[in-house]
Specification:
Strand content: under 5%
Number of strands: 0
Radius of gyration: 19 Å
């Protein structure tokens, strides 16, 4: 049988890894967005039709990332409930 504290620590460790990864991805996406906007503003990458296509692609990517993030946060809350940890207390 597993020690409850060990399971809690494993859940917390995995959640922290996930949160760190998501923060890094958000930072990368912000930098990528700045780069695309700069290129699009300068007209180097595309004409108006291509610009709209790239902007739509970027907006969909951002929306899907936010949906994934919300889904995972919900899953972590459920895992914390199941294993007896809470986001506020960590106990």
């Amino acid at each position: 049988m597993f020690d409850g504290r060990l399971v809690q620590e494993i859940v917390n460790l995995n959640k922290n890894y996930w949160m760190t990864t998501m923060e890094m991805m958000k930072g990368w996406q912000k930098q990528n967005e700045k780069m695309w906007n700069a290129l699009l503003d300068q007209g180097v990458v595309a004409h108006q039709e291509g610009r709209k296509l790239l902007q739509d692609w970027h907006n969909q990517t951002k929306q899907h990332q936010e949906q994934y993030n919300d889904l995972m946060e919900n899953a972590w809350e459920k895992a914390e409930t199941v294993f007896g940890t809470t986001p506020k207390t960590g106990k």
